[in-house]
Automatic annotation (TrEMBL):
GO terms for molecular function: ATP binding; transferase activity. Its EC number is 2.7.1.175. Gene3D superfamilies: 3.90.1200.10. It comes from Arsenicibacter rosenii. Belongs to the aminoglycoside phosphotransferase family. This is Maltokinase. Pfam families: Mak_N_cap (PF18085).
Length: 540
């Protein structure tokens, strides 16, 4: 247990005891925060932690302190994290509820021994949080106000109810709790100075449409500091689900996989049914977000020069970083990975020519707010339908960039990439196919992917109901899909090099497939004589 703390002051008065916060900053929080899953700065050059804002918050017979913690670095600007703190005495914490990861340290306060814990593990704090949201009770705090909003998803009978609560064992970059087994509350750990896009999106869809395939918005907590709004948490309806669609697709792919060594190509009809249903829900989500007469924050916009420049700048910057990362990690790739990497590196001129085309090509399709980080892991599979979650947007982008409007085809591309991942992960990396020839495996997975992609795309456009102002015509659809597929696969390349090097081949293969399609279009538009080098697939 790190650094026990002793003070003669009771917990309820510690807010005004500078020695306590200094001890936390210097001795307690650095080791503690570095064990927390939600802390993203573990690999950075940390220079310390600072207790930024400290808000006293009632917690039944006691108080909690909602701390906005600043993590300081020598290699970049500080980050802000949310850490509620509670003090529980030994008789109060004699429950299995507080896991080791929730215990910050041991404290002796005014002769009372207890634990300083992450407030989410204190039932009194959770109950108070719920009450504030349900009753929309705001609190004035230093520098601003804590604003508690209730959404349509909270049932009238629960507004004044005392409800049960628990922390969900979701170990991710945020924390989750459940109220009354009905409401899912997400506590954002890393904070940003703007409303979290997830609150904008979920509240907009719930309040302005009939789309029922997201968990309805039940409320949020915001720190309103002057002109800045910092979102601290959001509540939605809890969804009874067995698994996410990534796992469900993996289950379906098992049947497919077992048939491969027998040289049979088998996709069950219900797999196509599921793909079609997910495409339909995706289209309905976009139709709910297509709101020409609404709030300007959601109104459709054209492909302006400003947007094109933004996307091109972001993509070329990403491309530079990915090429550098690939060169640094080239020796770690296996033989097939190295060949794919070569083809990608040799294709740079062609990619740049394609980017130029995006700068100038007339485009009459429209852009709207979209999910932004759409893949199979963001869809919960219920018994016979799908519920779409996690509208926080792309984790690598700033909050302002996550609110930029794109063609909804960016989400479509995200899901197509995800199906590609699902089949490659299964076919390339399973014991059942270990002894089979790689080019055979490649043909089999390509075939599965083509059929599934076509099914998804067709069902999506069917539900959108073409012609539709969002999409000018098929040529634009095909062109924009290539833009977003390429961007996504190049993004994934960095994600895999950093987190799952064994899977680097999947995005590399995805990139090369897109470049192949781009080359086909180029040849049919300009012939072979436009001066851009051909794709070097003979390396493969
Ligand atoms: N409304 C909900 N009902 C039930 N479970 C949910 C709900 N929203 C999210 N979850 C569960 O919590 C996990 C994390 O949620 P997500 O929104 O992806 O958070 P994060 O941004 O922390 O990844 C999901 O994979 C899912 O299992
Ligand atoms: O954590 P997030 O959901 O925001 O997204 C990150 O992690 C994803 C992996 O969990 C990663 O997604 C990639 O791998 C998925 C399979 O694990 C696949 O379905 C996706 O298509 C693929 O992009 C995502 O890129 C990353 O941002």
């Amino acid at each position: 247990m790190p650094h026990p703390l002793t003070y003669s002051t009771p917990w309820t008065e510690l807010r005004d005891t500078p020695a306590f916060w200094q001890d936390l900053e210097q001795h307690v929080l650095p080791p503690y925060v570095n064990t927390c899953r939600w802390f993203a700065g573990k690999a950075r050059h940390q220079t310390g932690f600072r207790a930024g804002s400290i808000f006293e918050f009632p917690a039944r017979d006691s108080v909690a302190y909602i701390l906005i913690l600043e993590a300081l670095y020598s290699d970049g600007p500080p980050e802000q994290y949310l850490l509620p703190l509670s003090f529980v005495t030994h008789d109060q914490h004699d429950s299995p509820e507080i896991p080791a990861k929730g215990i910050v340290t041991v404290m002796h306060l005014d002769g009372v021994r207890g634990l300083l814990v992450d407030g989410i593990y204190d039932e009194r704090f959770r109950a108070s949080l719920y009450k504030h949201i349900a009753e929309q009770k705001n609190r004035t705090v230093d520098g601003g106000k804590l604003v508690f909003q209730r959404g349509r998803g909270l049932d009238a009978e629960d507004v004044h109810a005392t409800v049960s609560s628990r922390v969900l064992p979701v170990d991710s970059s945020n924390s989750a709790m459940v109220f009354a087994d009905k409401y899912f509350f997400k506590f954002y750990r890393k904070l940003f100075e703007l409303t979290n896009p997830e609150v904008d999106m979920v509240a907009f869809i719930t309040e302005n449409s009939d789309f029922a395939n997201i968990p309805a918005y039940a409320g949020s907590v915001t720190y309103a500091a002057g002109t800045t709004d910092i979102t601290l948490g959001m509540m939605q309806r809890m969804v009874a689900n067995e698994k996410d669609s990534w796992s469900q697709t993996g289950d379906y792919l098992n049947d497919f996989l077992y048939a491969v060594p027998k040289r049979q190509f088998a996709i069950r009809e219900d797999v196509f049914d599921k793909v079609e249903l997910l495409a339909k829900r995706t289209a309905e989500m976009h139709l709910a977000l297509y709101a020409p007469d609404s709030d300007p924050a959601f109104a459709p916009e054209p492909f302006t020069e400003e947007y094109r420049n933004f996307l091109i700048h972001r993509f070329t910057d990403l491309l530079d970083r990915r090429y550098a990362l690939l060169v640094d990690n080239y020796n770690k790739l296996d033989a097939i990975g190295q060949k794919l990497a070569w083809v990608f590196m040799e294709a740079r001129e062609m990619i740049e020519a394609f980017v130029e085309e995006f700068r100038t090509r007339p485009l009459e399709s429209l852009r709207i707010r979209i999910h932004g980080d759409y893949h199979l892991g963001q869809v919960l599979a219920t018994r016979d339908d799908f519920i779409i979650i996690d509208f926080e947007g792309e984790p690598e982008s700033s909050i302002a960039d996550r609110k930029i409007k794109h063609s909804p085809l960016k989400d479509v591309a995200g899901m197509i990439r995800s199906y590609h991942y699902a089949v490659c992960a299964k076919i390339y990396y399973s014991a059942e196919t270990e002894t089979l020839a790689p080019d055979h495996l490649q043909r089999v997975s390509d075939r599965w992917f083509r059929l599934i992609r076509e099914t998804y795309q067709d069902a999506y456009l069917d539900r959108i109901g073409m012609p539709h102002p969002l999409f000018r015509n098929n040529n634009e659809i095909n062109f924009l899909l290539l833009v977003y597929l390429l961007e996504k696969a190049v993004y994934e390349l960095g994600y895999e090099i950093s987190y799952r090097p064994a899977w680097v081949k999947i995005p590399l293969k995805g990139i090369i497939d897109v470049i192949r399609e781009i080359e086909k279009i180029r040849i049919s538009d300009h012939g072979l004589n436009d001066g851009v080098p051909m794709l070097q697939t003979s390396i493969l």
